[in-house]
Amino acid sequence: MTTSESPVESGDDEPPAADDPPAADDIATDPAARGAVYALTARLFGAPDDALYGDLTEGSIDAELRALLDRTALDVAPPELVPDDDRETLSARYNDLFVVGYTEVVDKTDGTIDSRGPPVSLYESDYRSDVSWNDVNLDLARAYEYFGLDVDSDERRNHDHLRIQLEFMSYLCRREAAVDPDVAAARLDFHDRHLRILTAGVADALDEEPGTGLYGRLAAFLDRFAEADVDDLAERRTGGETP
């Protein structure tokens, strides 16, 4: 996800203007740490290249996540992020779960085939029977554009991909921490409209698959973390604060 070079309008609203960079003492630790957790999970849901696998096996990512959780007010247990697999096996597990589809010839007489996507989709629209693919992605594009962001064209992913949504939530958390505390309301809205639907869907889908290893633990954690984030934001709203 990249920052747009020009202002973007959304309806009758103007996207909030960025202030001067705040001093370190002015940055709220809790939302900043939550943003870092979302950014870290976005990285972990990418294909495990050599750099990522090295950080995992050395335990640096596991230690980083635990330190970040300690800086939040959320009571969420961290997952075990040191992989059980070697690099090749972990990569194969990632591809089998999230990348490789399934095709079967169901009628050899006329060549009818049954084609399916990978066992676990990382796209929100695959978990939304209530709205169309176009409506989901259009709504997300408007949300990103409102904050002056767009999807990196090199990524070749739709707007509803899990990693893109996690990066956007990370951005909102950092903005809440350093620029505008009222962005917490936008975070709660984004959870309700999109991210919580996707994190729950991915966690449930992985729970139904055998041998998910690191990714099953990661998805279960992300689902718990996002749920705790929503509960905290909602409690602040009903408690008289404006999340």
Can you describe what's shown?
The protein has 243 residues and is mostly helical. 53% of the residues lie in helices and 6% in strands. It contains 8 helices and 4 strands, in the order βααααββαβααα. The strands form 2 sheets. A two-stranded antiparallel sheet has the order 1-4. It has a two-stranded antiparallel ribbon with strand order 2-3. Strand 2 and strand 3 form a beta hairpin. Helix 6 runs antiparallel to helix 7. The longest helix has 26 residues. The two termini are 24 Å apart. The N terminus is likely disordered.
Question: Gist?
Answer:
By secondary structure, this protein is mainly alpha-helical. It is built from eight helices and four strands, in the order βααααββαβααα.
The share of residues in extended strands comes to 5-15%
Helical fraction equals 40-55%
> Which residue ranges are poorly predicted, with pLDDT under 50 across at least 5 consecutive positions?
3-21, 103-108
Strands of the largest sheet, in order across it?
Answer: 1-4
Radius of gyration: 19 Å
The overall pLDDT average reads: 86
Q: Label the overall shape.
A: globular
- By DSSP (H or I, 4+ residues per run), the number of helices equals 8
For the largest beta-sheet, the strand count, sense and barrel status come to: 2 strands, antiparallel
